[in-house]
Structures are given as C-alpha cells and as structure tokens.
Amino acid sequence: QVQLVESGGGLVPAGGSLRLSCVASIIHFDLYGTRWYRQAPGRERVLVASIDLNGTVAYADSVLGRFVISRDNAKNSLYLQMSSLKAEDQGVYFCNVYRHTEFWGQGTQVTVSS
Q1: Quick one: pLDDT at residue 58?
Q2: Separation of alpha carbons 111 and 76, rounded Å
Q3: Any bridge partners for residue 78, and if so which?
Q4: Which phi and psi (to 5°) does residue 82 adopt?
C-alpha cells in the first residue's frame, strides 16, 4: 500500500509564506518523479511544480520566482516553499508521485486573506 500525507496548509495573509510537506510511505521513493498540483473551487486541477528523480525542477509561470519545490529522498518527503502569496494561489494542494503508476494524497487547504 502507498500513502501520501500532506501538511502545512492554512490561512496566511497576502504577501506571506507557507511551507507544504508531503511524506510518502512508498518503497524506492528515489525512483519516482514528484509533483504539486492545485485545485481551486469549480476549476480543474493544475500542475504547480515538479521535481523528477534526477532533481530537475519545473514551475508553472504563475509561481515562477515565488515558489520552490524540493525533496529529501532520505526522508521520503516532498516540499513546496511558497512566498509572496496571492489570492490566486488559493486552493487545495495535492502531492503526486509517479513512475509507471501514480499516487495522490488527500490534499491540504491553502487560504490567502486580503
């Protein structure tokens, strides 16, 4: 069984910061690519950032320069450092781990007040 558990979401003022974490109960986590997605109410789930098994990162244009994705294979963990938060960053953030198959966490809510 594979389990992904996200944490770190919450309420933050515009311009503030949050750090999201995802801990994966999975064998050979180091062989999987990892991604963060966001889903706002009534909208489709969109890719926010990714970091593959080689450490190559990619970001959505909307978060470039503000978010940093990272991973710690020794801890089976994925992180998203979010800075200069805006209202449009709001939504449920999901951790995704993929190889020949993919797995999802339950999500963590991020709310930006203004």
Answers
A1: 98
A2: 26
A3: 22, 71
A4: -115, 125
Site of tokens 């997605």? 37
19: exposed, middle or buried (Cβ count in 10 Å: 0-12, 13-18, 19+): middle
The Cα-based distances of 107 to 4, 6, 17, 75, 94 in angstroms read 9, 6, 18, 19, 4
Tens of pLDDT, residue by residue over 89-104, are 999 999 999 999 999 9
Q: Are residues 4 and 78 in contact, defined by beta-carbon separation less than 8 angstroms? A: no
108-113/91-98 β-pairing: antiparallel
Contacts of 57 (CB under 8 A, 6+ apart): 49, 50, 51, 69
